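Researcher: We plan to redesign the surface later, but first we want a full-length starting point. Tokens attached.
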């Protein structure tokens, strides 16, 4: 039996913090792999076969509540690596934390094969350690990214072409896409009714969450410039994964009360389940994504599956997506009001309806069907090479 260790943040018991990662893990287990998860922040090893949790606390628990907890977590990670040397066939790192960069040899000694999965924060959020400690890329047997463009950006921060030479482009499987499979364009109105959205207005969703990266303030300024704005109802998502209302959410709420006094709008503060989010996507006519930085926003594909038009920034590294899926690309937020108005004037045309259907099929074909099989085939190949 091939034994796999996943480095990832976790939600006990026996899950990571990401549904797509859990989906990969459950399919690996179903295919006969033994999978463990090590959470470096909680200092626990989760044995998924035995359904047991092993603590790697080196000190009494109250020490980890002090400001030195980062250093203590690092010592626990070192201890874990020494204790489990060569225990695994494959180690997969989900998010390349700075701790791993500092001890590449210890991480590599855990297994026969080392796999690194790169995400937006790994590359976009630069630090001294990320810039200077890059030997773990040399140790890796395979490096996974969701797009070639993103991999090229990551490669620019290391010597030679080590990332591109070891690159495997794998999309993340989305099992929650099942909530979109029965949608039709004709029953979009039913979803609007369920959400109490005005049926006589065009529904425009601005952003995905409450972070500053979404650029809400700039979007609001541009939206106000749309001609005949009474045609529209705007939906602003301000939820966060903690399902709390923080200063950022309150600030945007107050801003909307001032800036959107005569504009039809609603706010989502509560965290939405995948099924609830699918209903929102289906009720949407136009989705706007103006993030400053990103790898690839899942909200784009969800919107396509819900028969919504998508507007996004040309500055974002979405070439792999936009080459297959017809998207309205704008050079700056200054062009947003014009883009929304143009789409609004063509919503009911045959060309737009055809595009929405084609986009939905493209997303199903590229981002849904066979994605999990690509991951299983990747692991099968690693197994053969061992």
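Model: Full-length starting sequence:
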């Amino acid at each position: 039996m091939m034994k796999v260790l996943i480095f990832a943040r976790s939600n006990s018991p026996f899950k990571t913090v990401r549904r797509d990662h859990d989906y990969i893990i459950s399919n690996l287990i179903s295919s006969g792999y033994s999978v463990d998860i090590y959470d470096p922040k909680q200092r626990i090893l989760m044995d998924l076969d035995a359904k047991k949790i092993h603590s790697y606390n080196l000190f009494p628990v109250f020490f980890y509540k002090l400001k030195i907890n980062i250093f203590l977590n690092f010592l626990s990670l070192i201890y874990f690596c020494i204790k489990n040397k060569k225990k695994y066939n494959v180690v997969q790192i989900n998010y390349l934390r700075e701790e791993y960069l500092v001890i590449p040899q210890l991480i590599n000694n855990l297994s026969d094969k080392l796999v690194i999965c790169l995400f937006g924060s790994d590359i976009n959020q630069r630090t001294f350690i990320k810039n200077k400690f890059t030997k773990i890329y040399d140790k890796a047997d395979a490096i996974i990214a969701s797009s070639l463009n993103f991999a090229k950006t990551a490669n620019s921060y290391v010597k030679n072409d080590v990332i591109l030479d070891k690159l495997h482009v794998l999309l993340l499987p989305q099992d929650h896409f099942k909530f979109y499979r029965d949608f039709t364009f004709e029953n979009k109105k039913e979803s609007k009714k369920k959400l109490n959205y005005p049926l006589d207005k065009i529904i425009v969703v601005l952003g995905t969450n409450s972070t500053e990266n979404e650029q809400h303030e700039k979007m609001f300024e541009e939206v106000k410039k749309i001609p005949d704005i009474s045609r529209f109802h705007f939906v602003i998502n301000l939820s966060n994964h903690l399902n709390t209302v923080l200063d950022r959410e309150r600030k945007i709420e107050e801003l909307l009360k001032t800036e959107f006094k005569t504009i039809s709008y609603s706010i989502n503060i509560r965290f939405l389940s995948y099924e609830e989010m699918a209903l929102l996507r289906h009720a949407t006519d136009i989705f706007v994504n103006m993030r400053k930085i990103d790898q690839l926003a899942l909200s784009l594909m969800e919107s396509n599956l819900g028969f919504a038009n998508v507007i996004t920034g040309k500055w974002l590294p979405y070439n792999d997506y936009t080459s297959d899926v017809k998207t309205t690309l704008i050079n700056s937020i200054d062009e947003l009001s014009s883009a929304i108005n143009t789409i609004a004037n063509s919503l009911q045309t045959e060309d737009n309806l055809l595009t929405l259907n084609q986009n939905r099929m493209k997303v199903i074909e590229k981002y849904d069907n066979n994605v999990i099989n690509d991951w299983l085939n990747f692991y099968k190949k690693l197994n053969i090479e061992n």
